[in-house]
Amino acid sequence: MVKAAFFDVDGTLTDTHVWEGLMDYFMAHGQRRWTHRAYWATHMPFYFLHKAGMISEGAFRKPWAAHLAWYMRGYSLEQAQPIWDWVVTEFLSQHWRADTRRLLDRHRHEGDLVVLISGGPAPLLERIAGEIGADHVVGTQFEVRKGRYTGRSLVPICLDENKASLAKTYLQAKGLEVDFQASSAYADSVSDLQMLEMVGVPVATYPGESLVRVAVERGWRIFPEAKG
Which residue in 8, 10, 21, 206 could disulfide with 87, CB within 3.0 to 4.6 Å? Predict the structure, then answer.
């Protein structure tokens, strides 16, 4: 069995969201303007419903992540690669959390299996993994037919409670036997609770207030540690 380190991306390894980088690419290149308008027109009402407490965070976030596939509709895998490259080299290069990256590097140098788990598009996560030296990614899969993105996402979306189950399914499919009790997980949101609970060493990383409360109650490590 191997020891693993599971890392959320948005808010944990970065101080931003990968979806912002994807949208920025199309805005910077003057492409998919109508897709962009349709996306915001579709999702902003659900955002306000969530803020008003009328729908759950998951009910708002999962369609948000799934519909990012709209931007990729019609692109071949080869045509999409420069988009993933741009998001990593031009956008995320300004948003890495250096201290969390050092944690990832430490796990890598100690021989741990490093796995990224995020609601972002899996092909983009693969590009991120190549940039930072992660071994595997578990993310939201965009449907591909005849070598082109259809504009749809495959379910389940890699968010909230699905992160842990999708990670375990992925590792099993790869024939990787992980010692979860000896493994670590890093995440910033209470929505990642099941991801943190699946390991013996959960670390609340740049946590929101709700996750701070859980971490304090359970005696979990909080990173970065408070000073003073």
Answer: 21
